[in-house]
Amino acid sequence: MSDGHGGPDAAGPTPPPEVPPQDPRLPLAGLRVVELGHYIAAPFATRLLADLGAEVIKVEPPEGDPHRDWGARVNGRAVWFSIHGRNKLSVVLDLKSEEGREKVRALCARADALVENFRPGYLERIGLGPDVLRAENPRLVIARVSGYGQDGPYRDKPAFGAIGEAMGGLRHLTANPGRTDLPPPRCGVSISDDLAGMYAALSLVSACWGRDRKADGPEGGKGVTIDLDLVSSVFSLMEGMLPEFGLLGRVRQPMGAALPSAAPTNTYPCADGKWLAIAGNSDLIFRRLMERIGRPDLAGDPRMASNSGRCAHAAELDEAIAAWTRTMTAKEAQEAMEAVQVPCSRLYDMKDCAEDPHFQARDMMLEVEDPLVGATVPHPAAPFRFEGIPPRDMVRWPGPAVGQHNDYVFGTLLKEDAR
């Protein structure tokens, strides 16, 4: 067993091993979750659970989660992990050793849930399958995240986030309309991993609630296994496209910045080279929009009286709006739209987000002291707000060092639970 000072966190200061007490105000305080995850999907799920107060025990190999080496670095540390590993306890175990597997079984025997994102069948091959883990803890909820799911003809194929986007239907929709010489772009983040992580967190909490609700029933509050995958997570977002195809044979095609089901809603060029997103697709908002850009004739045009009519003439509307936005900067156009209550926004980059007064007023960015990085690291606040709990109280500590909590988890927590 590692002493917690090897791998990517070997250099530089090591945070103290003390673990802050759980915050009883947080809704998942008292829920214990073991994470056998790496990279993004499972660790993202457990980050959400940890933000909500769960005690998350992140099991890492001796060299640490590979994600500790991703992204930009400060003082030799990848700063992304400060967020990715926050509020979690890190322990080091070698799953290739019997000692490591025995400790995983001991942790799961005392946990409410396990989240893992290994290839299907891996845990079974090393003796940590659901049957083995539930032999000691029938209440254990197990959330399994993979590329294609635990069954089906593709279950054994490798997959990363880009594959989930591609096969789930999203990347087809982000293509440039009419352009076959340019690859359809990514959205810029690992959206399929994040989606699978969110679904894993939601379904895990739901399963724990259902288990506990049935504790006195004939099933005795048994745990269940949850099967989540990247492809299904993306596919679930495809709105009405499946019935449109099944009933009408219609395959939705890339629309660029527009929507096929609402108009006018698009992203329009401005005089300063920036872009303004405008959503004027309700009847009242549409009329206000047309009046403001000096086109009352379109506001009163019978062809534009309903959303379906506007969709049929979306190109004409987009041309009129773009002719107006090109005459001013994105900021000026946004202010003009906001003055008449038309939903809009400039396309923000991270500098815009960090400097926006609304982000600041709502504490959407938190300054977190990170001893590993040796700096104060800006963290995005948890997206959920609970009455009486300031956003700052939901981030108790940044991503820990590899194995930082070995002594606490193995020397204190397990021994206390065994009493």
Automatic annotation (TrEMBL):
Keywords: Transferase
Comp. bias (Pro residues): 13-24
Region span, Disordered: 1-26
GO molecular function: CoA-transferase activity
Keyword Transport: no
Keyword check for Lyase: no
Transmembrane segments: none
PANTHER family: BLL6097 PROTEIN, SUCCINATE--HYDROXYMETHYLGLUTARATE COA-TRANSFERASE
Protein name per Swiss-Prot or TrEMBL: CoA transferase
Species this protein is from: Roseomonas indoligenes
